[in-house]
Specification:
Order of helices and strands: HHHHEHEEHHEHHHEHHEHEHEHHEH
CATH topology of one domain: TIM Barrel
Structural class: alpha/beta
Low-confidence stretches: 1-21, 369-373
CATH class of one domain: Alpha Beta
Strand order of the largest sheet: 1-4-5-6-7-8-9
Number of strands: 9
Radius of gyration: 20 Å
Oligomer: single chain
């Protein structure tokens, strides 16, 4: 790891980082902890100068195959911001790439497949995943678990979102090929989803089995579906992923997250996560009114406010904290602070630092047996 040490512009770890160890686990289980934990989706990446200094050229999938590099990139935002969890530096198409389906991540575009999955013959390229296929991911997790002082979050793409990339062949605005397959060959659709569900289970199981603490299932593009279609064509497969992982790893909190999914939140909650991820469109207090005060949530600052500068980002973060307050004005313990989507590449790290510091300061709880000033 020494050869990949962060460059000079990366700051020293914040003095509060050492107390962050259990904040995430407490919140994800609805327990009162030291403070509200913070992490950011896509917190490791192009917004960080230390990332750009070590990343190199080529596909992100090539970088992920280098355990020392992937571990270093995973740890960079923990060092810089003092966030309460690290999220594995990986990608939702690592699993289909690892089995030779033929998918890559094109810079500036996203996942692309030259030969999309459009027929039963194409399904043969999506063979079952096993641990040997992702030995480099396991090696990265082993390195991280040995070095991190905060929990490591595993993740995978949910079956629908990964299917949409493989079927469309690239990011899409209308998901025309995906929806066509759903409605013209339901049997094949469910076979694809079953294959991807098992792949997601194996991918996350590998990470949890080697020491990751919790996991997030990203269904980024499920919001493109009606609730009727989601319940029939997607929910059974996401439920299978979450239930099977909870069976194998009952102590690992499970986060379920999607974009533009306000109309699907009830169904996504029915899939069985521990924590429901919210994008910026759904206020936390509104979600609890709909689904109960014991709902544990993650979110949900609008990433656009972070791009707008420190003042708008801090004001937005304060509103998120207010949305999470109980009637007596105290923070609800079941809250993991995050953005409502991922960190944008042109984000100023100083703005994210201001948000982390604000959340930690405003929600810090005095040790038991002491009286707050």
């Amino acid at each position: 790891m020494d050869a990949l040490a962060a460059p000079d512009e990366a700051p020293e770890p914040p003095p509060t980082a050492a107390v962050a160890t259990d904040a995430f686990v407490d919140a994800a289980n609805g327990r009162v902890g030291h403070h509200t934990p913070v992490w950011f989706m896509r917190q490791a990446g192009r917004s960080l100068p230390e990332y750009r200094a070590v990343r190199g050229e080529g596909s992100i999938l090539d970088a992920i195959k280098q355990p020392d590099l992937a571990a270093e990139i995973t740890m960079q935002p923990v060092r810089r911001y003092g966030v309460d969890a690290a999220v594995l530096y990986s990608d939702i198409v690592v699993a289909p790439h690892a089995v030779g389906f033929g998918v890559d991540v094109a810079p500036g575009t996203g996942p692309v497949a030259e030969q999309p999955l459009r027929s039963r013959a194409d399904l043969r390229r999506l063979r079952p995943l096993d641990f040997d296929d992702i030995s480099y991911v396991i090696d990265t997790v082993d390195r991280l678990v040995a070095e991190l002082e905060v929990p490591l979050l595993a993740f995978a793409g949910a079956p629908f979102t990964v299917a949409s990339y493989l079927i469309e062949g690239r990011p899409s605005k209308d998901y025309r090929h995906t929806k066509a397959l759903i409605h013209t060959d339901e049997a094949l659709w469910h076979e694809v989803m079953e294959r991807l569900a098992e792949s997601a289970i194996t991918f996350i199981d590998a990470q949890l089995s080697h020491g990751a603490t919790a996991f997030q299932l990203f269904d980024s593009w499920a919001g493109s579906l009606s609730r009727r279609d989601y319940d029939r064509y997607v929910l059974p497969h996401s439920r299978h992923v979450l239930r099977e992982l909870r069976r194998r790893h009952p102590n690992a909190p499970a986060i379920h997250f999607g974009i533009g999914c306000d109309h699907l939140l009830g169904s996504m909650l029915d899939a069985g996560p521990t924590v429901l991820g919210l994008d910026w469109r759904t206020p936390i207090d509104d979600a609890r009114r709909r689904f109960g005060d014991d709902l544990i949530v993650q979110g949900n600052l609008d990433p656009a406010l972070v791009l707008a500068g420190v003042e708008p980002a801090v004001d937005g973060a304060l509103q998120v904290l207010r949305d999470n307050e109980r009637p007596d004005g105290t923070p609800h313990p079941g809250h993991v602070f995050n953005l409502g989507h991922g960190v944008q590449p042109d984000t100023d790290p100083a703005v994210l630092q201001a948000v982390v510091d604000l959340v930690h300061e405003r929600t810090r709880r005095p040790p038991e047996g002491t009286t707050p000033r």
